[in-house]
Amino acid sequence: MRLLTHNLLICPVHKKPLAIRNVSAVDIIPVEYQPRFLLRMIPRLDWSLLRAAAVSVESDCVDALPEAAPSPSELPALEKAVESGDRLPLLDALQRLLLETHVVGGQLHCEHGEFYVIADGIPNLLADAAVNPSETASEQAACTTEGS
Amino acid sequence: MRGSVPSVREIETLLSQLPWRQFQSPRVHLEQYTTPVHLAARIAHHVALCIDEDERRSVQAVDLGTGTGILALALCLAGLNHVLGVDVDSEALELARANAAALWELCPQSVGAVLEFAAVDVQPNSLALAPKSFDVAVLNPPFGTRQRSADIAFLDVACHLSRRFVYSLHKSSTRSYLSRRLERFGCTAQVYARLRFDLPATYVFHRERAVDIDVDLWQIEVKR
Ligand SMILES: [Zn+2]
Fold first, then answer.
1. In terms of CA atoms, which chain B residue is nearest residue A34?
2. Distance B69 CA to ligand 1 centre (A)
3. Structural domain boundaries of chain A?
4. What are residue B115's DSSP bridge partners?
5. CA of B222 to the centre of ligand 1 (A)
6. How wide is the angle at C-alpha B118 spanned by C-alphas B138 and B31, nearest 5°?
7. Average of pLDDT values for B111-136?
8. Is the pLDDT score of B224 beyond 70?
9. In the CATH scheme, what is the homologous superfamily, with its name and number, of domain B8-221?
């Protein structure tokens, strides 16, 4: 799962953004530089979610991401720079994060407590595949009591 | 693969070499049947032609109910560079990914495509995708032969997700109903082509042979 895809996903039950946690493996796979696509995506991105994701995967691009997304009034200047062939640190960071950083194993946590598993690079966002840690804990407790 | 759109034939030839062109054990209640290769090629070719050449590589597309990924891969071959394939069946997605790997071997120019898969239920209540995240949504929905209006639920989801275009297949017999419904939503919709879909025998009650059904390929321009 690329971080681009992560930014488009929400919890199937509560419709909230999901936090990446307990990352077990990350792949970096370079692809062709796509500044026009990245520029197009900027206004649609959940920027704080992207920043949090960059931290979760311990990306070295975190520092290249400003606190807030470039505003619509800043975009034309960025477009101009791209058309004239400039490499912008912001777009380099977005290229690396959105298109080249893959979470191979990990979890997607909803603020309501349940989480969804990313296995083999494919996130499972089915409501009935949600893992509810409190239920799991109480089930385990029940098993322990039975066993003793 | 850059620039002009490859022909339907070229796309079809590549797709027909993929290892998983059919579901191994289709789940009847989901009305799982793989989009025939020639239909996938035709749909993808049409979608690509509808998007300006200089924009084609920077639109984000979603394939709803991607199954073994045939339509998603066809879109990549047609020159769309960002495709997300989603399906409720995570086992099918593993086949889709194997198909993608096979395609990259056959057609190294496509390796650069940003193709992703995620297990997502394409139903309004359990959808795990943010609204208006995509420029284009394509779908080959269940035709509703098992579950009534299953295709309409898919279509509603597609219109909720896409900013611009939805391409969808529906039984021709539902044409006037769909047309009224889409008009009510304020969408501009037209039937682009009438096609024959050879539905595998699995899905036809009390019949042993596969049947052809008439389907329409709709192009829907979503209200902004
Ligand atoms: Zn939730």
1. B58
2. 27
3. 3-147
4. B83
5. 28
6. 60
7. 95
8. no
9. Vaccinia Virus protein VP39 (3.40.50.150)
